[in-house]
């Protein structure tokens, strides 16, 4: 796991069925000079899975959660969102296979997520542009963790 002091750390939460898409998102995060955490890429086989997730969530600057019809059923997605919410770090909701109205009409979608700007996977370049701006701003200011 990467532990660099000036890096913007982005935890990518997703369901196992969305691993390929999550890998593409993580690759883009890296190309915008931030460090992603992707469970399948950053947790060694046989490692304490939950410990690695909690360790990175403790350091993460933001959580990007990929919501798909499958991720609503994944308990880890909800646990990761809860951890980010308690830490008060930004939670970026990206939808794939769901419209914003479908997401907001789900009874198990928390109100605090429904109030956020929600983006479609097709519009994720907006997020990457904003992420790069934050990374550049932090590096110019010499932000340390």
Overall pLDDT score: 84
Find the CATH topology: Rossmann fold
What is the CATH superfamily?
Toll/interleukin-1 receptor homology (TIR) domain
Which CATH top level class fits? Alpha Beta
In this structure, how is the largest beta sheet organized? 5 strands, parallel
Q: What's the SSE pattern? A: EHEHHEHEHHEH
Shape: globular
Strand content: 15-25%
Give the helix tally: 7
User: Can you list the strand order of the major beta sheet?
Assistant: 2-1-3-4-5
Q: Unreliable stretches, pLDDT < 50, 5 or more residues?
A: 1-5, 41-45
Number of domains: 1
In the CATH hierarchy, the architecture is 3-Layer(aba) Sandwich
> How many distinct beta strands?
5
What does this structure look like?
By secondary structure, the protein is α/β, with parallel strands linked by helices. The chain has one domain: 3-Layer(aba) Sandwich (Rossmann fold). 48% of the residues lie in helices and 15% in strands. It is built from seven helices and five strands; from the N terminus they run E-H-E-H-H-E-H-E-H-H-E-H. It has helices spanning 19-31, 39-42, 49-59, 75-87, 100-105, 111-114, 124-141; strands at 9-13, 35-37, 62-67, 91-95, 118-120. Strands 2-1-3-4-5 form a five-stranded parallel sheet, with helices on both faces. Helix 3 packs parallel to helix 4. Mean pLDDT is 84; it is low at 1-5 and 41-45.
Short précis:
This protein is an alpha/beta fold and 145 residues long. 48% of the residues lie in helices and 15% in strands. It has a single domain (9-141), classed as Rossmann fold (3-Layer(aba) Sandwich), CATH 3.40.50.10140.
